[in-house]
Amino acid sequence: MFLYCWLAFVAFIPATMATNPGVEVKLTEKGLEYGRQLGIAALQQKLKSIKVPDISGTESVAPIGKVQYSLSNMQIVNVGLSQSSTGLVPGTGVRLTISNAFISLHGNWRVKYLRIIKDSGSFDLNVNALTIDTSMGIKSDETGRPTVSSVNCAATVGSASIEFHGGASWLYNLFSKFIDKALRNALQKQICPLVAEAISDLNPQLKTLNVVAKVDQYAEIEYSMVASPTVSQSSIDFSLKGEFYNIGKHQEPPFSPTPFSLPPQTNNMLYIGVSEFTANSAAFVYNKAGALSLYITDDMIPKGSPFRLNTRTFGVFIPQIAKQFPGLMMKLLVKTVKDPIITFDPSNATVQATATVTAYAIQPNSTLSPLFVLNLESSVSAHLFVSSMRLAGSITLNKMNLTLGTSYVGQFQVGSLDNIFQMVLKVVVIPKLNAQLSKGYPLPTIGKMKLVSTELQVLKDYMLIGTDVQFTGSMLSQNS
To answer: Is 421 exposed, middle or buried (0-12, 13-18, 19+ CB in 10 A)?
Structure first.
């Protein structure tokens, strides 16, 4: 019912349906149990708000005769929901069952009998054998976010015991015959509406779901669902779009997600699978935005390096440069020429990138004179990890290959420049990329959600994040 920590991933169905998801999420029975604990605490607070109306009437009590009575100022002092369980109903949803619960209340009593005799005092009432059986329904609202409501609810109130403070013993006869039933009915009528209200109280929190999460000035990622959740006997599975877009312009890439499914898992509360499609949609977006290009100048090269970005250094390998452009500083432009390709294989994530490297001589008047253009094919390995609520990473160079594209200084042996450009990639380009990757990319989240004991493994075609979840800042207090 009250799956506070999981409704970030639950069934909202946007008008536009995609064929396959980029991100799959699995809520396990362990996660459902954590949701039950949060939900019971919230429901317990909600039931404490029961308002019991004053009860009054006239009844005949032997041997006294007619007795006018009233119970007033009744307040709930405790609610116990010690026995509860949640269950998955395959194809339907989640069911919450509470049994052997109790409600304690305190109030005042007053009686008048034999026309002139009045008596009053206080009482404590315990209502036992309380049962609640309810189910939660989930649908989407007009913004594509989830909204929840109570589908059905049944509540029964069992026996009641009362302790009067003041008054005679015959008051118990009055209670057991007449007042007991009236009190239990008054309580029973309010339980299911309060359950429905507690479920409805989730909706403001659900509106915090980052359906579209901003990444940076270039990109955002969409986490709307592409299908209804699948409820099985052991888990609830959610299919999210998981696609990067340029901010303000949602253009689909020239490729589509391929189906994948998460393996059966039970150790963690939550599993998130991020596909190659999601990663490659990010590469498409950043390349289209022109973000995968970098100007490199000499001040970006470590001071202790024997290689300097000037015509003197390059003139050692390409004499024409030293002759035609003596004593000038240089600038390099590294720019991708097509979308990088990211692949996931067991325990290995790699990125294949095709770029050009254009070398310029910087003239005294700051104009740039092109020297040559190299074609660069490179492969890097990616180490992926979860930091807070973001997926982050770092890369290391595997290999690179240079070929000559265009030369403005005559022909030369490109292989002689391998060491220079390996150094440029390792000490300038890759650290720049790692600085960006370390900032991470937002995962789907709701409210003040925190991932705990998180593990990430790279599998065939997707990466799998297994994690437990905690909420900080007490979501419960916001809904009680």
So the answer is: buried
What 3-state DSSP class applies to 200? helix
- Determine the structural domain holding residue 388 and report its residue range: 214-468
Angle of the 29-47 helix axis to the 180-200 helix axis, nearest 10: 130
DSSP states along 3-52: -TTTGGGS----SSPPSS-SEEEEEEHHHHHHHHHHHHHHHHHHHTT--P
- Give the tens place of pLDDT for each residue, 346-386: 999 999 999 999 999 999 999 999 999 999 999 999 999 99
pLDDT one-digit tens code per residue, 94-126:
888 999 999 999 999 888 887 788 888 898 988
Same domain for 237 and 118, yes or no, is no
Question: Do residues 395 and 437 both lie within one domain?
Answer: yes
Return all residues near 142 (Cβ < 8 A) that are at least 6 apart: none
Are 221 and 202 found together in one domain?
A: no
**pLDDT tens column, 448-473:** 889 999 999 999 999 999 999 998 75
Distance separating alpha carbons of residues 38 and 84, to the nearest angstrom? 12
What CATH number does residue 438 fall under? 3.15.20.10
Q: Is residue 476 part of a domain?
A: no
DSSP label of 310:
B
- Domain end call among 206, 222, 250: 206
Residue 407 belongs to some domain of the structure: yes
Rounded to the nearest 10°, the torsion over CA 240, 242, 245, 250 is -30
Which of 446, 474, 448, 2 is closest to 198 using CA atoms?
2
User: Are 296 and 163 within one domain?
Assistant: no
State the pLDDT confidence band at 145, using cuts at 50, 70 and 90.
low
Extract the tokens encoding 306.
């024997």
Residue 67 · residue 58 · CB < 8 Å: yes
The reply to whether omega before 340 is within 30° of 0 (cis) is no
DSSP string, 331-397: EEEEEESS--EEEEETTEEEEEEEEEEEEEEE-TTS-EEEEEEEEEEEEEEEEEEEETTEEEEEEEE
Compute the distance between CA of residue 217 and CA of residue 227 in angstroms, rounded to an integer.
29
Asked, for residue 20, whether it belongs to a domain, the answer is no
199 lies in some domain: yes
Name residue 95's amino acid: R
